[in-house]
């Protein structure tokens, strides 16, 4: 039975965490930009 | 109190004492190693490689041991779990027959009770042929969706909707 | 009370519910100052920016399913299961061009049902309305029930209390703040959820290195790492098509397309897809790591909270509770608002007050929200166990709408009768497949049937259509 190797699993998990963090930061940055430009709503 | 009454009172006390000792002795015998049984069906089937095992024992706060093996005689058993929980979710099983049995004891230092009747989990995954067929069909539909949305969006970009 | 799942005391749970309830309702009242007009209430003034636009799409698509079911999925179907779940983000990606087109074509539009009515006519409107309301109501009820069940499993709060408080809070802040409140709270909720899921994942990695987790899976649960896990492979496109069908048809997503400022829609939905994509993977990782951190999984549906509480202790339990509350509220409020909009504009108004002013409709909208909330609550109350099955019936129903929607928006010659037939046939055949063959074929077969019907009828009998009638005869504003 072919199994996903450890490096693939690691990439998936680390990549997922990194992307989730980036996503959260992005949302906050976008909000700051919108608030600064007074274009939130 | 008359002397007869005194003798009756003494007998009653002695009887009460004997009764108490007897009850105590009986209780100790009842406090032997506990039984444990599965609540699941004797045989279970799964085509996704997982099974939720549930059990109980005759007593409170028992410590259980769950064992698994690939043979019904438990020749080479693996201890899956030891603790106070009364269920365990097994997953990631490959095709095959799995046997589980459970036993319990009252305290860490006590003797284990007898093993329960084993249950069997038969794991037979869906055929890969079916899986790939459904995957391919889904894939084609997905591609068609992507194409049509892409083409549609592209062609309408050039199309002005506000022509009078 | 299921053993082992309660991670928080009931009093702590009630306190958290009270705190967040009060906060959300206060925000609803605060933002409600902008929601006085109908346009403000239903489509947030059509001026939502990129930050909030993206966040609302992310938060709404994160349901309690994402945070609770994803770990279970991973524990049952392994790595492929996690990836299969992530494919639901494709619905967001694909909706991006649709969002642009929707805003272009209907600059004064309010709902998806309105579009179908204008595009395809009366019969289509009825069929689509039934599908929309069925989907909206069953999803709301399933979220309400999930909330009650989860709050009970996590904190011992009785089902009726938890479910009622959750629905009550959502109804109140949506009532006061309309889509402004929904979108605003969505932003806060999405950040909390992202932070929470990441915190638990990182905490797990400090306890057990990835190589150890991987090794543990290889020895004890090898199928979870299988590259060819049949049930998961089957799930990939079935899930994806279900997700696409949900997003394409539901007014939840259309109302956001109407709400976003011009030029924002495409970017917001694309970004939302990217932000949402890793969440099932990270949440799923929690499920896969459970055995490696010494947790005996008693029930797969609470493995996420079990792991969080185990790894982060009391703080983890509080975090889980908050994340679950946020993911439930962010979906319930959206469904409440979107479904009420449809009922108000497409049922109440045409039937009872066709000449009403926007102001009057605004008032009706409030009453409809309460009515929809009460109906949901009433259905949640008996805690019907077979609800999950009913929800899965939605798969073939929404799958059948994919092609009518795409064709309706982009294909001028699409045959309206064909579109109706596609929805009816697709749903019927899909439901039959569900019962006769299996859940994993239903959405697939429905979508395929719908596709063939739309293409066939349009190629044989094309029809002309004036796009301007979507804009109500008024000139559409170019993108």
In words, what does this structure look like?
The complex is a heterotrimer of chains A (41), B (164) and C (479). By secondary structure, chain A is an all-alpha fold. Helices cover 76% and strands 0% of the residues of chain A. Chain A has one helix at 6-36. Chain B folds into three domains: 1-31; 36-123, Immunoglobulins (Immunoglobulin-like); 127-164. The longest helix of chain B is centred in the last third of the chain and has 30 residues, at 128-157. In chain B, strand 4 and strand 5 (78-83) form a beta hairpin. Chain C is mostly helical and 479 residues long. Chain C folds into two domains: 10-384, Up-down Bundle (Sodium/glucose cotransporter), CATH 1.20.1730.10; 387-474, no CATH class. Chain C has 19 helices and no strands. The longest helix of chain C has 50 residues, at 303-352. In chain C, 67% of the residues are buried. Chains A and C meet through helix 1 of A and helix 3, helix 8, helix 9, helix 12 and helix 13 of C.
Summarize it.
With 41 residues, chain A is an all-alpha fold. Chain A contains 1 helix and no strands. Chain B is an alpha+beta fold and 164 residues long.
Name given to the CATH homologous superfamily of the largest domain in chain B: Immunoglobulins
Q: What is the overall silhouette of chain A?
A: rod-shaped
The SSE order of chain B reads HEEEEEEEEH
Question: Of all protein chain pairs, which has the greatest interface, and how many residues does each chain bring to it?
Answer: B-C, 45 and 59 residues
